[in-house]
Amino acid sequence: MILKSYTLARMKALAMFFPLVAVNLVPSTGFATSDLVVRNDQADLLLYPFRNQTFYNQGGATKVGNGWNFTHYFVGDWTGDGIDDLVVRTASGDMLLYPFKNGTFYGHGGGKKVGNGWNFTHYLVGNWLGNGTPDLIVRTASGVMLLYPFKNGTFYGHGGGKKVGNGWNFTHYFVGDWTGDGIDDLVVRTASGDMLLYPFKNGTFYGHGGGKKVGNGWNFTHYLVGNWLGNGTPDLIVRTASGALFLYPFNNGTFYNQGGSAKVGNGWNFTHYFVGDWTGDGIDDLVVRTAGGDMLLYPFKSGTFYGHGGGKKVGNGWNFTHYFVGEWVN
User: Fold this and answer.
1) Angle at Cα 198 formed by Cα 195 and Cα 200, nearest 5°?
2) What are the domain boundaries of the chain?
3) In terms of CB atoms within 10 Å, which of 22, 28, 96, 264 comes out highest?
4) Quick count: other Cβ atoms within 10 Å of Cβ 51?
């Protein structure tokens, strides 16, 4: 999903819409694994590095922040240094930047105001402009889409608020480079279960054939965008009400006629799903959280979760209010 291609721009933005489903802004480069920063009920932030396919014995949990009481949290490489940071929204609509450096939020000038008056229904982090850092597209209550570029460490002074779409009244919004041109786009789901593609080019959704139907009958409980096949575009893994997982490849601008849906798992009844390249092979995997607070690793290889040792416990006692997947540690 940027200079470092984001697999989901990744679905961090979708934390707004699926607070129990993990979102991932981590680039799947194959050279690093994802990590987790979590928030506890005392508003502390803790870092849990993930190495050697486990959270155990990696020096976590390290306290990396305190007093975090915000309404929205946006993971992304906002400072352009190759490590993820956080932009947060306060209850009054201010946007604050918290750089993450040397394994902590402490001591790096966090809390600088980078925007104000942000009162929108949806916030979509993505590589919208190819400018080396994420940007934000937001949706107003009336269904208008506005672009806010992020440059030089701020949203101020960059022409923010440009209208890039209207009439957007969908149930789900999936950010990803669906057209494979290096810039993120949107696939959306209608109330009737249709999937529509909206390419984003030249800084707008207007004029690029948006609204093409690329799927139908999508009525699932979870939608997990990721680099599941290494085919140059994101794909979707979905969960049915019965706990089955199905893979829907996205190729040639559509989900149709791509061999989906292939059943890739069953009995998935977890509270949280965290997409990331947890095994470091360049393909996304899942870490899941059970109702008892255990963290389990499910590698995804050769197009399936079956047969790859899934379900290994990699953590326990995870009872936090927020979970942020990111590239937090070099």
Assistant:
1) 155
2) 11-326
3) 28
4) 15
Residue 55 has pLDDT above 60, yes or no: yes
Residue type, 9: A
User: Are 250 and 233 spatial neighbours (Cβ–Cβ below 8 Å)?
Assistant: yes
CA atoms within 13 A on the CB side of 173: 28
SS3 at position 76: strand
Separation between Cα atoms, residue 184 and residue 17, nearest integer Å: 18
Cβ neighbours of residue 122 closer than 8 Å, sequence gap 6 or more: 13, 16, 17, 138, 139, 173
Determine phi and psi for 21, rounding to 5 degrees: -110, 130
Q: Please state, in angstroms and rounded to a whole number, the distance separating the CA atoms of residues 307 and 282.
A: 19
Q: How many CA atoms lie within 13 A of 286 on its CB side?
A: 31
The pTM score is 0.91
- Residue 267 in tokens: 């009995």
One-letter identity of residue 82: G
Q: Over the stretch 254-304, which tens digit does the pLDDT of each residue have?
A: 999 988 799 999 999 999 999 999 999 999 999 999 999 999 999 999 999
- Residue 225 carries which side chain, given as an amino acid letter? V
In terms of Cα–Cα distance, which of 163, 303, 225, 182 is closest to 8? 225
The end-to-end CA distance of the chain, in Å, is 18
* CB contact set of 31 (below 8 Å; sequence gap of 6+): 280
**d(C-alpha 131, C-alpha 3), whole Å:** 8
Examine the pLDDT at 145 and tell me if it is beyond 80: yes
Residue type, 103: G
Dihedrals φ, ψ of 92, to 5°?
-90, 0
Sheet holding 162-165, edge to edge: 122-126, 135-139, 145-148, 162-165
CATH 2.120.10.30 is the classification of domain 11-326: yes
Task: Quote the tokens at residue 229.
Answer: 């096949």
Contact 77, 61 (CB under 8 A): no
